[in-house]
Design goal:
This protein is α/β, with parallel strands linked by helices. The chain folds into two domains: about 5-90, Jelly Rolls; about 155-395, EAL domain (TIM Barrel, Alpha-Beta Barrel), CATH 3.20.20. The protein has helices at about 85-95, 95-115, 130-150, 190-200, 200-225, 240-245, 250-260, 275-280, 280-290, 310-315, 325-330, 335-350, 365-370, 390-395; strands at about 5-10, 15, 25-30, 35-40, 45-50, 55, 70-75, 75-85, 155-165, 170-180, 185, 235-240, 270-275, 295-305, 320-325, 355, 375, 385. The strands form three sheets. An eight-stranded mixed barrel has the order 9-10-12-13-14-15-16-17, surrounded by five helices. A four-stranded antiparallel β-sheet has the order 1-8-3-6. Strands 2-7-4-5 form a four-stranded antiparallel β-sheet, with helices on one face. Strand 9 (about 155-165) and strand 10 form a beta hairpin. The longest helix is centred in the middle third of the chain and has 26 residues, at about 200-225. The two termini are about 50 Å apart. The model has no long low-confidence stretch (mean pLDDT about 85).
Amino acid sequence: MPEFVSSRKFAAGEKIFSIGDRGQHAYFIESGEVEVLIPKNGDTIVIAELGIGEIFGEMSMIDDAPRSATVTAKTDTEVIEIQRSRFIQPLKSKDPMMDLLLRVVLSRFRDAQRQMSGIKAQPDDMDASLEEIRALAIERIQEERDLRRGMDANEFEMHYQPIVTLEDGHIAGFEALMRWKKQDGYVSPVDFIPLAEATGMIVELGRLALETGLRDHKVFINGFKQAFPDLAVPFMSVNVSGLQLSSLDEIDLLAGLIKDSGLDPATVKLEITESLMMEDPEHAAKALKKLKALGILLAIDDFGTGYSSLSYLHQFPLDTLKIDRSFVINMDKSESSNRIVRSIAQLALALEMDIIAEGIEEKNQMDDLRELGCQYGQGFHMAKPLPAGNVVELIESGPSW
């Protein structure tokens, strides 16, 4: 495990780094003082004096271009050395536009320093990655514009995957899944959902998903009552993003959509990821209780893939726990996956929660999950996500798996 911070001591007059050195560290002054110097007209001038609590060399956190100044200890000084490797990956994983903006500011600052000091820029002094970052930023802008264009052109549609009872194989509900249909084919949710979350457009898409899902569900329920008059009407599960739940005003808007739908709230289920609840448990509890007051159902999605604390689970008004497909599809291949599924099922039963197992692809998985006490399942073994019209046909055909 590499150390990302360490302390170093410098005697008065000792050089900490020189102009032209490659930047690999930033420094936090724990005691003492330092001088920041640049050459000018054959002389050396002090452009800054920094003391306890201040940071220098911070531009190395963005890239490892050569130092644009020399820093020397003015008095006996102790600094905390912060390695660039500690921060560069989080920076790269963020929005490339922010990365580009930081690098442009940094580049222009260096240009200003060179002009002030009279130093001529060398080609290898330039940030070689700037053009690459610029290309990534432009690509992101184009993707955002395409996403917005797709929303304005009504290219997003809902597909629905049946959720069945493992006991008798009848349809118990549906999960609403968004699809982006462009002229040249479908865009994978793996690509557009993270983009929508990063841009904030996931809030609009989330409203669209709920509104469309509720409207289609009224049709599904009517068809279901005719086909299966003796069975309980199915529920509709819709995913809710963290951005939607982060605002209590947005929750009020979602509540309004549910009320205006005219559906029995008990047939509406909202799915929330466990990571969302763990990031801010106090706010999550408040938000979920507000939704639960409507009479709807709440599910925790993809359980087992995040970092949930079992001590938190009982604090949330959850009705359903969904076992992630990655565990289900490996049940008969991996003993650890099998044990995880068993443990999750036991946990849910102990908390008196319903269980939905995702990713069922074979009948034997369906049988094993039933033996473990799982009440519901979904997956390609039963049906793939279908457009609304195909769901109506499926209901009319009276399937039983």
